[in-house]
Amino acid sequence: MPPISRGNRTVCPKEEKEIVYRGYRSTVRVPSHLIGTPAAGSVSFLNNQFAGESVNEAVYDDPAIAELYELLNAWATSDDFYLEWVMAAESVLDVGCGTGLILRRAREQGHSGRLVGLDPSGSMLEIGRRDRDDIEWVHGYVDQAGFEQAFDLVFMSGHAFQELVTDDDLNRSLQAIRRSLRPGGRFVFETRNPAMRPWESWIPENAAEIPHPDGGVIRDENEVILPVTGDLVRFLSRTWSPTFDGMREAEIQLRFLDSDSLSRFLESAGLQIEKQYGYWDRSPVSDQSPEIITVARSTG
Ligand SMILES: C[S@@+](CC[C@H](N)C(=O)[O-])C[C@H]1O[C@@H](n2cnc3c(N)ncnc32)[C@H](O)[C@@H]1O
Q1: Probe ligand 1: pick from 21, 54, 65, max atoms within 8 Å of CB?
Q2: Among the atoms of ligand 1, which is closest to the Cα of residue 78?
Q3: Distance 275 CA to ligand 1 centre (A)
């Protein structure tokens, strides 16, 4: 199994602990005395009561969860992969950018072109905006943004592509992405390989426990709602943090398209697969590869 593609930040490291977060296994260094029982009480966002158009919008739009996002999802090899693409492109659109970490790093490293981060979660965008005002932050969905032949590169990182759960979401988003590409432009994204059944390790026993920089531990666990049928995986994401009382719980749905279905959706949106990789080291896709990383271009 390749190494984790997401890291962690630590304070006062004391002991090594193996964690699995969103399907990736890693070792974090955690001060043992800080690992405790999760606080009692619960604030539930079940059934996405705040959801707009995206089924998962409520999860990311919770400001308390958005604040923790970069602690739980620190810079990783996957981000290096995308950063290389971004630095080589003049104009870039990051769809489902979240906090826009990759765009912010690109600016830091001297990218002087147009960088646009789009996300339906205002709370995630706010974190990016707070850090940099020289990036265009767009609150919404790609099919509503109306971009026409504006970008050399459109990308979706951090498995944001899997948030497109209905056929309609996929078709509308992919068509809008194709329209937003300049001639010769590329759409680059990844989706977890369903052949590896990564959701089978999304169990509370594999919770991630990450030290909070201000003290205490953030605990993040997943529990898949069984049975898993078809290509849609529903799971409960639970988070405890010293920054809020009790627990935040939300239901997340992710779609796991296999290579053939992925090809069909791309083709019908006018996008042609140029290359595919099974991991960030650019190894080929197989039944054993954790990812399906796709580079596509417009056929129009
Ligand atoms: C796991 S985060 C990934 C964020 C970022 N791309 C990264 O690499 O860290 C998934 C993001 O997808 C966004 N999202 C959810 N539904 C979406 C949709 N229909 N279109 C675009 N983005 C969506 C969420 O708001 C969230 O910020």
Answers
A1: 54
A2: 8
A3: 23
Whether 168 is in a domain gets the answer yes
State phi, psi for 158 to the nearest 5 degrees. 60, 30
Q: Among the atoms of ligand 1, which is closest to the Cα of residue 169?
A: 19
Domain count, the chain: 1
More confident residue, 26 or 273: 273
Token digits for 73?
């999802």
Nearest CA to 92 out of 147, 158, 173, 139 is that of 147
For residue 14, tell me if it sits in a domain. Answer: no
Q: Is residue 250 in contact with ligand 1, taking CB distance under 6 Å?
A: no
What span, in angstroms and rounded, lies between the C-alpha atoms of 57 and 236? 14
- Residue 11 forms part of a structural domain: no
Closest ligand 1 atom, residue 82 Cα: 8
CA gap 117, 29 in Å, rounded: 32
Domain that residue 147 falls in: 88-194+257-298
Q: What is the DSSP string of 168-187?
A: HHHHHHHHHHHHHEEEEEEE
Atom of ligand 1 nearest to the CA of 94: 6
Q: Which of 97, 173, 222 to mutate to test the pocket of ligand 1 (most atoms within 8 A of CB)?
A: 97
Does residue 190 sit in helix, strand or coil? strand
Per-residue pLDDT tens for 124-181? 999 999 999 999 999 999 999 999 999 999 999 999 999 999 999 999 999 999 999 9
Domain assignment present for residue 201? The answer is no
For residue 290, what is the domain's CATH number? 3.40.50.150
